[in-house]
């Protein structure tokens, strides 16, 4: 039984050793590349989220100053097209709910809730 598992020639031993080293390098490379890609996607998500929030803030500020709540509703409903926005709620300075919009079939457990002040 042991004779069947033995590698008899030096050439085959070298080829087997090189194959094992190459396989290990491939496995380590996959882990490194997947980590880098995950980090880059996380950074891109953060940048897109900040850009969408700032854009929405600058769009809403003048409309809120005019108390045009129908236009506020149109703006936040149209902003749901951003990938990073699934739910929006707008409150006035006193904390009273003005308007709210959400994508369909969004569970509250999957939301990353953040608060942003609207600046003009």
TrEMBL record:
<keyword id="KW-0472">Membrane</keyword>
<feature type="transmembrane region" description="Helical">
    <location>
        <begin position="14"/>
        <end position="37"/>
    </location>
</feature>
<protein>
    <recommendedName>
        <fullName>Single cache domain-containing protein</fullName>
    </recommendedName>
</protein>
<keyword id="KW-0812">Transmembrane</keyword>
<keyword id="KW-1133">Transmembrane helix</keyword>
